[in-house]
Structure prediction request, 143 residues.
Amino acid sequence: MRPIRLALVTAVAAAALSVTAAQSAVEPAPVAGTPVKGWTAVAGLSGPAVMELARTLPVATEADGDQTWCDQSGVVRSALASEFDESLVTRRADGTQLWGSDMMGTWTVILDRADNTQCVIASGIGYQDGTDPTTFYSKVGLS
Prediction:
């Protein structure tokens, strides 16, 4: 990995800490063919548990303690696009969306709620365009 790209990935990982609440670890981007490393937005909880919790969380302008970040849908989408260069990759029937950025190497799973808000369920690094989205959902436990 070139030093500039490594520095960029490191900077993105550090910036991701301000978007999600409590990550357990930041892992380097995987070598082709290895599992994608990521983290749930709430330390110690599985992806499905975070998703259930997120259905009832209040809207907040930033993550608070061990809570995932929930905000107006436009605010969440704008933050993912402007801060991480992420765009919508796929939308699933369970109300989740996968966003990713090949340029930044980041990915985010969000829950789309009926009240026009969205909550960050999980995020990580190691995203590459063309990767099967189920790879990231499986990492979060939402396969």
User: Anything to note?
Assistant: The first helix runs from residue 3 to 19. Helices lie at 3-19, 47-54, 73-84, 133-140. The chain has four helices and six strands. The CA atoms of residues 13 and 26 lie 7 Å apart.
